[in-house]
Amino acid sequence: MNARDVRKGPEDLAQRYKNWREGGLGAITEHLELAAVLDLLGSLEGKRVLDAGCGDGLYGLAASERGALVTGVDLSTDMLAVARARSVASGLVVDWKQADVLALPFPDASFDVVIAITMLCVVTDAGCAVGELSRVLAPEGRLVIGDLHRWSLWALSRRIRGWAGNAFWSGAHFWTAHELQKLLTDANLRPGRVRGAVYYPPVGALACLIAPMDPSLSRLGTFGSGFLMVEGVKSK
Questions:
Q1: Which of 27, 95, 187, 207 has a Cα at 20 to 30 A from 86?
Q2: What is the pLDDT of residues 203-220, one digit of tens each?
């Protein structure tokens, strides 16, 4: 439940990711979010995939492992360096590029699938970003957005940190499903499935207790989920 700061990002962002993933709460949460996104994406074999705001490459590498032809973009050179190192270590091929999601360096209809995970919460112009993601999608292509759910204890804890002076979270936006679906519609995408994940508060002990039930809780709706996913489909 970390966030990818596509604006400028703190200098220690790569280390923050590492620390988050090595902690018990972070490891459990990242596993659940990744599994939920991959389940929503379905088969990726042979598909052209763009990981927008790719961070240190977790999702791009997972898509490549499933047979996708992956391009990952991020503004942070430090994060891209980590992503490249991880792809070399894993033997997976991903085209990592430094780029701004507000002005992507790709022709129209370049990708079959676009993913944007914990990126819109910190991007400076979410409408423009989703418009760009829609532009590079091929007809019948899919955009999957995964972001922090406004109605959750996760968002509340980050609001409190922002109010307390944390610059990283002070300007963050936390989304509802309705808001994300409107962004999709405004970008000429057809809203599709909506799902939630991470139904526990940001407390390690509770994560260990509740995480095994998370897939079942997701069938009950998005209320209380810390992580929200929406799908948009490009018309022909």
A1: 207
A2: 999 999 999 999 999 888
Counts for the chain of helices (H) and strands (E), in that order: 10, 7
* Domain locations along the chain: 13-230
pLDDT higher than 70, residue 6: no
> What distance in Å separates the CA atoms of residue 50 and residue 143, rounded to the nearest whole number?
9
d(CA 115, CA 182): 17
> Residue-wise over 208-234: b if at least 16 C-beta within 10 A, else e?
eebbeebeebbeeebebbbbbbbbbbb
105: phi then psi, degrees, rounded to nearest 5: -85, 45
Is 97 in a helix, a strand, or coil? strand
| Average pLDDT across the chain, whole number | 91
CB 9, CB 79: distance < 8 Å: yes
Which residue reads 């492992």 in tokens? 65
Burial of 42 from C-beta contacts in 10 A (0-12 / 13-18 / 19+): exposed
Cα 87 from chain centroid (whole Å): 18
- Confidence (pLDDT) at 1: 54
Query: d(Cα 49, Cα 64) in Å, to the nearest integer?
Result: 9
Q: What is the pTM of this model?
A: 0.91
